[in-house]
Amino acid sequence: MKKILIISVCSIAFAVTAQTALYIPDTLSGANISLLLHKDSMAFVPGPKTKTFGVNNRSYLGPTLMLYDGSSVNMSVNNQIGDTTTIHWHGLHVPPDKDGGPHTTILPGVTWNPSFTVMNDAATYWYHPHFMGKTAMHTMKGIAGIIIVKDAAEAALALPRKYGIDDFPVIVQSQQLDSVNQIMHRGMEDSLIFVNGARANYGYTVVATMPAQVVRIRLLNLGGERSYNFGLSGNKTFSIIASDGSLLPAPVSATRIRLSPAERAEILVNLTGMNTQTIYLKSYASELPMGVQGGPTMPMPPNSPPMDSPINGIDFNVMQINVSSQTANPVTTIPSTLINITPYTVNQASITRTINFTADSMMVMDGPFYFNDSTFNMMRIDYTIPLDNTEIWELTNQTMIAHPFHLHDVPFFVLDRDGIAPPAYERAKKDVVLVASNETVRFITKFTTFTDTVVPYMYHCHILMHEDDGMMGQFMVTSLTTGIKQYAMNNDNFLIYPIPASEQLNVVAKNVRFENATFTLRNTLGMPVYTREHINENASQIITSGMAPGMYILEIKNKGNLVTQKIIIE
């Protein structure tokens, strides 16, 4: 039924011949940045409009955020979409309560105001929702945008950096629409390609006008599941200069670069001497192996949902590039070197964590998928990591399809793939790595700067439907060594320890007295799981040994005052 629908949609689109100029998103910068999330709609195909979520009065996708390493920024995110959501600053090294994971929700009509210092190398990052179970829906309906971080090292290089003139953001995604043109965020037959929010295939073409000089293209795969094997028509070479989280040590000459969902890359294309010529950015998907979504369609077991798409395993144009005359002061050469990178070494690691990608059987193609046979649990902390720990994470994919693995908090360096050093374009800082079926990938990282005993960081598959279905885990970075931490609450009136708690939680009144007080523990859904009333002792305990591990809210009501504190039970 779905396959017939997609073919029907495409047959309508084939009759259309339309060109759309590459849309360059507006930019926001400075110490204060505001994002308004709202309901909207777009006419993606003939017929009913598609309901979307817009950002800052755009119907689909949001502005580009320009940030500077070392600067402080105050974000304001106003949620007017009529549903609870979050905003995750993908790739940014920020405190966990500012990271925008599923624990940091923004209720409808509420404004979230995280403030943080930018602590990232120059590269291309992005933002998107991360609400548990609805990440795919909210992201694919349009809440997403690029983040460009700049720093002194990048500024010292002779690189194109005139935004929209010789430095172009290119956001590529695929969509699937139902019979009334609404986004099917859980579909596996996506066949409509979009570039910066505009239709780009089946009779529609997105056209970028770029000057006859060296240009910079910042590629983001914003798809829910499809990988792209980007290249230029005629196998024209380009230079890869940046990965997810930093520039490379030197440009890497290439004719292809594979990007899985959420991966980014910056490439330089030398268009010098090509004025009036036309080339195409393409996806050479015929070269992708079976098992990488977007490559040849895998045979499905009987009674399985359809996974086929008419663009699986074929080469297709993503964007047309018309070459125009040079700009003033053009960049016409590509640097031979970029920045110095010193990866962590294996002998610096204090632990190797092993994560197996699993499913109910090897024949499962559409999930659910798991990490170490466990589905995600908001109340379970999978790893507690000491601050400044250097660790190796070993990822082994025991399923039939490739999964892009994303780590929050800190970037990592890929050590090897099945014991072989990664390709040169993966030898910079990354936060997403695609792990193929039956492949083992090792990376190394160091958990620096931020600790928390309440809000965790996430790791997950970035195929959004897999993430929503529970292919996700969470970890806490902590500096606690004794398990006791004093929190300044209500003018240091209380001491609560240990956090995390295992057997019991101690609550001590310091500068006040408990008079007929009430303690209530609530889970992350706001439901009370423990209540104790009529407390008059100034040192009291809550027995936690029988409670499920996870995050809770402790409410202390005393003499008409209410104090709340997030805690962790392990």
In short:
The chain has about 575 residues and is mainly β. Among the domains are: about 345-480, Immunoglobulin-like (Sandwich); about 495-570, Immunoglobulin-like (Sandwich), CATH 2.60.40.10. The chain is about 5% helix and about 40% strand.
Descriptors for this entry?
six-stranded mixed β-sheet, mainly beta, Immunoglobulin-like, 5% helix, disordered N terminus
Structure description:
The protein has 570 residues and is mostly beta strands. Among the domains are: 346-478, Cupredoxins -  blue copper proteins (Immunoglobulin-like), CATH 2.60.40.420; 494-569, Immunoglobulin-like (Sandwich), CATH 2.60.40.10. Helix content is 5%, strand content 42%. The chain contains four helices and 40 strands. Strand 18 (238-242) and strand 19 form a beta hairpin. The longest helix is centred in the N-terminal third of the chain and has 13 residues, at 2-14.
Q: According to CATH, what is the class of one domain?
A: Mainly Beta
Q: What would you give as the CATH superfamily of one domain?
A: Cupredoxins -  blue copper proteins
Tell me about the biggest sheet? 7 strands, mixed
Low-pLDDT residue intervals, each spanning 5 or more residues: 1-15, 481-491
Reported by name, the CATH topology of one domain is Immunoglobulin-like
Task: Describe the strand arrangement of the main beta sheet, using strand numbers.
Answer: 14-13-12-16-21-18-19
How many strand elements? 40
User: What structural class do helix, strand and pairing data support?
Assistant: mainly beta
Strand content: 35-45%
CATH architecture grouping of one domain: Sandwich
Radius of gyration: 25 Å
Shape: globular
Distance between the termini: 47 Å
Query: What number is the mean pLDDT?
Result: 90
Number of helices: 4
Please bin the fraction of helical residues: under 10%
